[in-house]
């Protein structure tokens, strides 16, 4: 249950007025919803999943049992987007991906 119907409007406005990566736009919408009042009760988890052309969810992130899950998810997303494309390349053609220095990474 949302605290106020304006939450949805603010989320839509934030999404539609933003540009860039879909994940970033969705995260901006979540943050706008939170700033507009968010849920009526406590929120302890948040997640985001985005599939692009690879055929799987290239971004699939979740925060569970946090006092500030949306803010934590936003931080995690920033870290993930820096390396997302390298992991997608690794899934499609490991020989073309950057080395991570782990066993089997020859």
UniProtKB/TrEMBL annotation:
Q: What's the domain of life for this entry? A: Bacteria
- Pfam family of this protein, just one? DUF1028
PANTHER family the record matches: BLL2871 PROTEIN
- The protein's name in its UniProt record: Uncharacterized protein
Q: To which species is this protein native?
A: Corynebacterium glutamicum (strain R)
């Amino acid at each position: 249950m949302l605290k106020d119907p304006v939450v949805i409007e603010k989320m839509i406005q934030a999404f539609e007025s933003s540009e860039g990566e879909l994940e970033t736009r969705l995260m901006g919408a979540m943050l706008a919803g939170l700033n507009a009042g968010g849920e009526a009760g406590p929120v302890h988890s948040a997640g985001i999943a985005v599939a692009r052309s690879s055929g799987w969810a290239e971004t699939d992130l979740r925060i569970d049992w946090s006092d500030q899950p949306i803010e934590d998810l936003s931080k995690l997303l920033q870290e993930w987007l820096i390396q997302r494309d390298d992991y997608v390349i690794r899934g499609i053609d490991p020989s073309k991906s950057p080395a991570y220095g782990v066993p089997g990474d020859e």
